[in-house]
Amino acid sequence: MKINLPKLPSSLTKRDFSTILNEEYPELERCEIIDSSFMNEEVERVRLDQVVLKNCQFNYTNFSHIQLTDVRFENCDLSNVNFSKSSIHRVEFINCKLLGSQFPTSSLGNVKFDNCILHLVTFDSAKLEKVIFNEAVLTNSDFYECKFKGIEYTRCNLNDANFEQTSLKGIDISSSNFETLTISIDSLNGCKVSSSQAVQLASLMGVIIVD
Fold first, then answer.
1. If you compute the radius of gyration of the chain from its CA atoms, what whole number of angstroms results?
2. Which Pfam families match (predicted)?
């Protein structure tokens, strides 16, 4: 699946994230932020447009209602960050840690999580369109009551993920692995799985398979 990647200018001004703390309308545009630490802060309705962030730490920060457009995160720690009710479009997360991060009721479009740790992440009631999870750790992740359109899971760890009330029609999870999932038969209708996964899912749903 092809997605629209962040549209970034060739030249970016260097900034520090802490400069937006006291701004009435916190926003950063056309800049690069490197080795910035912005943990345990609360800054709602931040707007980032055409921004690259490298080696930054944002642990336990409240970014609810954030607007991210044309943004790339590289080697950043976003563990336990609150991204609830956010708008996230044309954004890349590369080699990032998002353990326990929260995206409920957010809108994500043309987003890629590449080689990221998303253990215990929550996307409940979020809308995801053209989102790629590539070699991501999604153990104990929560996709409850999400709206999916054009979602790709490539070689991910989906163990103990929750897909209740979320349709996986047309979604291919065959290259990913899991021992158990929380999922209903209705949610699986039209989902593409490998033959071994089909046996696992049947077993999870109480089907007795006889050789």
1. 18
2. Pentapeptide (PF00805), Pentapeptide_4 (PF13599)
Question: What is the CB neighbour count within 10 angstroms for residue 183?
Answer: 21
Q: What is the CATH number of the domain that holds 51?
A: 2.160.20.80
Phi, psi of 43 (to 5 degrees): -135, 100
Tally of domains within the chain: 1
Residue in the structure block whose two tokens are 């065959």: 174
Answering whether pTM is above 0.85, one says: yes
Q: DSSP readout, 66-104? A: -EEEEEEEES-B-TT-B-TT-EEEEEEEES-B-TT-B-T
* Amino acid in position 6: P
The CA-CA-CA angle for residues 174, 179, 183, to 5°, reads 75
Angle at 64 between CA 62 and CA 67, to 5 degrees: 120
- Cα separation, 118 vs 139, in Å, equals 7
* Beta carbons of 112 and 93 less than 8 angstroms apart: yes
Within a domain: residue 210?
no
Q: Which regions of the chain are under pLDDT 50? A: none
Q: Give domain status of residue 181, yes or no.
A: yes
